[in-house]
Structures are given as structure tokens and as C-alpha cells.
Amino acid sequence: MTVPTYTSAEDSALLKRALRSRSGGSFLEVGAGNGGTMVDASRRHDLVAGTDIHRPDMDDWKKAGASYVLADRASCFRPSSFDVVAFNPPYIPVEAEEDPAVGGGARLEVPKAFLVDAIRVVRKGGEIVFVLSDEADLRDFEAICSEEGFALRREATERVFFEELAVYSAKSTE
Fold first, then answer.
1. Which secondary structure element, helix H or strand E, spans residue 167, and what is its range?
2. Distance (Å, rounded) from C-alpha 153 to C-alpha 18?
3. CA–CA separation, 172 vs 174, rounded Å?
4. Nearest Cα to Cα of residue 118 among 153, 88, 97, 156
5. What does residue 173 show for φ and ψ, rounded to 5 degrees?
6. Residue 95 vs residues 32, 73, 98, 99, 102: alpha-carbon distances, Å
7. Residue among 104, 106, 108, 124 nearest 170 (CA)
8. Which residue segments constitute the domains of the chain, with CATH numbers given?
9. Contact at 8 Å (CB) between 133 and 159?
10. pLDDT digit of tens for each residue in the chain (174 aa)?
11. What does pTM read for this prediction?
12. Regarding beta strands 82-87 and 67-70, do their DSSP bridges make them parallel or antiparallel, or are they unpaired?
């Protein structure tokens, strides 16, 4: 079964806007899709990389000087490798994954796994920035962050069709 790469939409645009206030150092996008966020980030960061389990359909990220790695989340990187880690995970809670590009699992296991991996690869003093919908139980994400010494903060929201999307940032409290 061929799975199409996620096509950039309102959620990706919201994440890009939130990331524009960050610059310098190294940047990783987990689940980079076609690499549009990487292209945007390459204008402000010294090193830009992205991962996904599918090869991207477009190659604008190459022209922007970014690196793309076929990998599950950030599993291929060493701990504490990046200054900024961003992701726009599949965030719709669904029992059966009809569309893996948007299905986050019944209890949002997919975005939680993205967060755990991001915490592992972000440098001390770095930051994690990600998108969730209002269907997410934020307490689970706050607990993951708290256990790892990160504070979670809502940065921006946008109402899109039937849901409200929010960008969150997580920074080390240590």
C-alpha cells in the first residue's frame, strides 16, 4: 500500500508562523512530509534536517540546503543534537488508522511518541515546538514534559473548520 506524503495545510502554516521567531543553531523537523517547514527554517538556522518514514514528493528542501533522512521520528539521531525540534504530527484521535498522515492513535500515541523523541534529541536550553488539535488531552502532554523537566506553553491558536489547532512550545526548566 502506497501512503501519500501529507500535504501542507492550515496546521503547517500555523507551525511555520510560530517558528519564524526562532533562529540560529540547528533545527530538526520530525515527520517533515514534503519539507516545506524545513525550507522556511533554512532561512534562519545554520543546520536544518528533517525526518519522515516516506520519501518526499518535492525536493525544495534540497535547494534550501536542508538534509532529509528516511527514519521513524528522530530515532536516527543522538541525544541532545538540536537546538530547535519541531513537529506537526498526526493528531486526530482514531481507533483504526484509516489515513496514517492524520491518524494519531486512539489515545494520541503517535504525537506522544513524537514528543518523547523530540525531548531526547533537543539540546539543553533548546526548544520543542509542535501542533495539536483541541481534541488532545493536554494533561498527558504536560505530564510527559514535566517528567522530563520541560514546561509546556500554548503559543498560538487558530480555528480551522471543525477544530481549534494550537502550537505549543516546550522548554527545559533545568
1. strand 163-172
2. 12
3. 5
4. 88
5. -95, 0
6. 24, 21, 9, 11, 12
7. 124
8. 10-172 (3.40.50.150)
9. no
10. 445 555 557 889 999 999 999 999 999 999 998 888 999 999 999 999 999 988 888 888 888 999 999 999 999 999 999 999 999 987 666 665 555 555 554 556 789 899 999 999 999 999 999 999 888 888 999 999 999 999 999 999 999 877 899 999 999 887
11. 0.88
12. unpaired
Per-residue confidence (pLDDT) for residue 83, from 0 to 100? 97
Q: For the chain, give the number of residues.
A: 174
Whether the CB-CB separation of 147 and 129 falls below 8 Å is answered with: no
pLDDT of residue 93: 61
Residue spans of beta strands (DSSP E) within 100-160: 122-133, 150-160
The partner residues of 156 in beta bridges, in order of sequence, read 167
pLDDT for the residue numbered 92: 63
Q: What cell numbers appear for 56 in the block? A: 518526499
- Burial (CB count <10 Å: 0-12, 13-18, 19+), residue 8: middle
Residue 147 CA: distances (Å) to CA of 15, 33, 144, 174: 25, 29, 5, 12
> Quick check: 54 and 81 in contact, CB under 8 A?
no
